[in-house]
Known about the structure:
Layout: E1 13-16, H1 19-22, H2 30-35, H3 46-52, H4 69-81, E2 87-91, H5 99-111, E3 115-119, H6 123-129, E4 133-137, E5 140-144, H7 147-155, H8 178-220, H9 232-263
Parallel strand pairs: 1-2, 2-3
Antiparallel strand pairs: 4-5
Helix pairs in contact: 6-8, 8-9
Amino acid sequence: TAGERRLGHNVNLAYFAQHQIEALDPKNRVIEELSRAIPPKIEVKPRDLLGRFLFSGDDTDKKVAVLSGGERTRLALAKMLVTPANMLCLDEPTNHLDIQSRDVLEDALVEYSGSMLLITHDRHLIRSVADLIFEVVAGKVNVHHSGYEEYLRTREPEIPTAGPATAAAVPEEPGLSAKERRKLAAEQRAKTKVFRDKIAGIEAKLDRLTAEQSRIEGVLGDPEAYTRGEDIPALSRDYEQAKKRIATLEAEWEAASGELEAAE
């Protein structure tokens, strides 16, 4: 397909796609690859940023050539984020990333203060970061302004989504005009949306972690896995890590649900 884009005034664009991984110099060390991407006058501590993307200690001195696909993706994303861009275009950024790396990416994108155009099949990532959905159907673009959960309710109302879709209740108070009641309802919706978004983000991470945990269980329960070269110790560590992370997220979900209930 072909098209035309028009950037607004003072828009600085950064783009990420899988070919960015291929552009990494295999001869460089990780710290060198990132440091060379930092523009002049941009105050970034390379090791601190690499630490956020799970490169710590001796990992920063590894050669790019020996990195796994997930590690290369993390490095490429770190390089993108050091550019002084106020708009990011991301094409399937979670490809090749493990669970922990996806969590790191989600956290970085949630904290990002600029605009973002995200192309992905990762529904968990959409739930966590997207607040505007563009649906392309039969050559037409439909815009959904209320985020992914509302989009699902619109498109597939029979599919349960995170949190009830009830309207904010406004107490009957004598003397309130219709305008004042609408304002109160809007304030109540805004107050609860923070908690609903938080719960949706936790549920997205839980869905992905439990799916990965089930996958690992299947591999570890397969007798042939022990003879076909699977890295059993690494899988066992990943399983325990996922188990602990799930327990933490479940506690966070309980706390957030209590906050939502108190706010409603």
